Amino acid sequence: RDGAGKGGVIKAITERVSPRTFRVVALPAPTPQEKSQMYLQRYIAHFPSAGEVVIFDRSWYNRAGVERVMGFCTRGETRRFLDAVPGVEKLMVESGIILIKYWLEVSQEEQSRRLNDRITDGRKTWKLSPIDLASYTRWDDYTEARDDMFAASHTAWAPWHIARSDDKHRARLNIISHLLAQIPYKRVKQEPFVLPRRRPPRKGRPRELMATPVPERY
User: According to DSSP H, which parts of the chain are helical?
Assistant: First the structure.
């Protein structure tokens, strides 16, 4: 749901890891060309290779959620998506992808508080969009869409995991703990790092820097 804290969860997961291994994918609205493609096509291009972790900041389930509720697709398109997605996800898992799906659930009261905070706090205004305001009045529609989505796509090979997120700190810890438990890994022995000795300084006059310095105001 809007304001449930997915951005903060993603930041907490990725702030201490290598960006060479972890990628965050947040796709914008589809272009006219992408609208003419198979619906999942633009997501498939971002699927991980071996050793990579890809986090979708919103995913193909847009079709079962915001697109359905806000009328960006037809009910028939949503139904066809929900009919097809379990098979697609089964192919993903059978190809070796570890697919983990999280739904962050926030209460109406906490959602209202957070969205109001975005209106009054200039540091957070960028998080608010006209679609958020339009969606705010459709809580029950989103609840119905969520329940239909779970009924169609909560499978043995790609189950949904619900995290209660009224307490952001606890939600982040719970999701990180759960995520780590889903990934098989072996402890790798790491050799200790030791800084090598620098080479002796070169003799002669230092070269003058040909660049404009940043003003040191602080």
Answer: 6-14, 32-35, 41-44, 66-69, 75-94, 108-120, 130-136, 139-153, 168-182
